[in-house]
């Protein structure tokens, strides 16, 4: 599912949806979902193990603050590389942060990006007693950018 | 006498004081003598006497099993017949919040009451349907809950009274069908509720189930359930101490530790049976303990602390253990064994899930676990999710998607006999420690083998924040249900896994951040809620009176009529009158609204606003002059309108009755209507297209007709709202929610950083009266003592019969909505600086009519903007109204 890019410049390849179409049995029942009968509730994305040098980018925190956080991490010398993750709408921002880091480093930083697909779960809550609670899965794209020092000076 | 050196010598005092001092000394010495008769501290603290003392103290208020633990660490309060921990004595407000958000917060909810209903499914559903309505969401009959797969929650009403006269919120749990039982069709249902609500609900349930209120003659319930019924005496009290020492000669029975409800008379009935439809209601208060774990780590805390029970390996072992019969008996049945193995597998699988927010809401898992005291860590540790081994990703995904199957929610905790056996056969802490001391290698795990107790428990998933767009899944967690007697045995292991403990205050904060109404504070229409508001008002007034007038706010100056309670009754009544008086105006503005929808030209919109304002001003001018005539006219027109509008079923009949039996407020809980109004409250700004898409075909645009029909059918209703403040400010309870004027909105547009409008200071018409009364009182020769600072403030006028307190309005209040410069539409019932959002946030109710009036007169891009003003402040703050469904 994930495509790794070795070059230092950044590409985002569209992940073909046909391959990643889930075959969840629950999604079939959801096809004839009536909007009046169900309420859609989104669940949180699955939590993954998190290292100290992982940074999950969101759209709520100020962009500058997130950039400064990454910069501080790189400058501290504790980590030779950091990993910036962005999901969905935050992909743009993750890329932006990575490029800004690289641009401000006078060539000492390199980036390598991976894309992947994250499966998200939506709950369909019945409004009426007769309705069975359903779940639907949908896919969202994510990016994982590794920012690392090129050579130890 | 003062506490100083030589203070015992009376002669050192001035002679005029010696008489008084002598009396005092005598009094004290008498008291001391009486005290000295009682035992020494050492004797009093001996185990037996201590136990006796504890038992005496819990006759009046029920103690939870964790009471002693809490009493050492918490501020205890006596509430609802229980002794409960209110908040920790340590400074831990933020720490508790962090636990809720990032780690795990533990709360003892054993004071929640459980009622068990037993009967055939059809009979139960038929009886309970009278207490609920499909209009307010799913009921007892919802498919997911009925199978036992999910816990459901709803608000119950008095029989056939929906949408008025609610009783309060409950959660319920059906026992999953067991194969042999399915033929007889008898189902078990647990209804969990707050103790303040219990008596109301119990009487109502007895009514709808046709269970006799008069105590059934004892044999009747005994006969009908000979197998399951165990005399109350044995279940109430279980011997804990000196079992070993009790030799044959020893007749004296030592004091028994009270487990369960110590306040109840053993002879009172707890079982009521209906003769007509065979439904049995049983009061299971304090029979089952309930602990709540909140936060993402609650998942791993719970699954580290408990381990599924071992299965006896062969038949020989089974024969050895005659004592622990229920488990070995249970193990002989192969289908039950396979169920247990499945449940154990699920437990293993759940360890791979990082946070409870990833599981479907309300999932139930039944388990049988071993003694949690045996595998305790030596020090307090922090449970950390172990996500490294994604062994069964496919299975895990399936679990998250489809939830845990209904058959795995089966647990023996539903069985009364098993519960009693488990409670009685608990190995005492002392015995356990004795066995530990005999271990060959100190500090190793004690292996009891087949002697180890097996405890049936139930894990119930608690959904986090569900409504709204932000912070979904916040505060999700697990509830753990344990048979009584095992409280501390589970409590300490949970704490040793890194759970922090919170009290009532933390529980209230949890519901507040989730945006849900908290019982009983936020249920002004329930009997328990009314009772609560009366009590809090009294408390707050007493506190207010303790301060001298100069050191407390003069609420009259701030224009706050009711700083200690929310006058819901007056609010809805006045809005009803107000709308009736200004009915014409609403219709006009509604038409304008429609026009504005069509024409997107901003200039035109602006003009519309001005017109609107003008019309409002005009109507405002007209109103005070001849309100009575208009009201009479309009009340007629409204009734005609009701007949014309589409929705006239049983509801309208009820609403037409309401004015006669004045003194009633209800909260709107119809989901369809809530959704509709929630949509109307959103501003149609840049994201207008998006909201348009969400609306779907069922969405009604905000138009005069729709508003009118709602006004006609729900005249005296309140609606639950969440207010998030745009800029500064932190609202507190009883703050007023007001309608912003046109100038305020323009002010916001011109200067987004403006703090908001100010209320001008009000004149205090009672000040002179208060002063006069005070002087009068002073002039009169009175009883020499008791003139403290507090008493000066209170001047009770016996002649008028009115209690005048300086700085407070007298009790008879009129005109609550237009008392200040902005029209009041509601009040905040709880508000605070929200640590989740990072700004002030308030939860409260607004009058439905007031809200509709407000949003139909607001321009679309500012729709849902309101003003909030604290009781002791003149500053209005801008806030956004959210209605989350």
TrEMBL record, chain A:
InterPro entries: Alba-like_dom_sf, Pop7/Rpp20
Keyword field: Cytoplasm, Nucleus, rRNA processing, tRNA processing
The keyword Ribosomal protein is annotated on this UniProt entry: no
GO CC annotations on file: nucleolar ribonuclease P complex; ribonuclease MRP complex
Subcellular location per the Swiss-Prot or TrEMBL entry: Cytoplasmic granule; Nucleus, Nucleolus
Keyword Lyase: no
GO biological process: one example: tRNA 5'-leader removal
Protein family per UniProt: Belongs to the histone-like Alba family.
Subunit composition and interactions: Component of nuclear RNase P and RNase MRP complexes. RNase P consists of a catalytic RNA moiety and 10 different protein chains; POP1, POP4, POP5, POP7, RPP14, RPP21, RPP25, RPP30, RPP38 and RPP40. Within the RNase P complex, POP1, POP7 and RPP25 form the 'finger' subcomplex, POP5, RPP14, RPP40 and homodimeric RPP30 form the 'palm' subcomplex, and RPP21, POP4 and RPP38 form the 'wrist' subcomplex. All subunits of the RNase P complex interact with the catalytic RNA. Several subunits of RNase P are also part of the RNase MRP complex.
Function field: Component of ribonuclease P, a ribonucleoprotein complex that generates mature tRNA molecules by cleaving their 5'-ends. Also a component of the MRP ribonuclease complex, which cleaves pre-rRNA sequences.
The protein, known as: Ribonuclease P protein subunit p20
Organism name: Chiloscyllium punctatum
Lineage, uppermost ranks: Eukaryota, Metazoa, Chordata, Craniata, Vertebrata
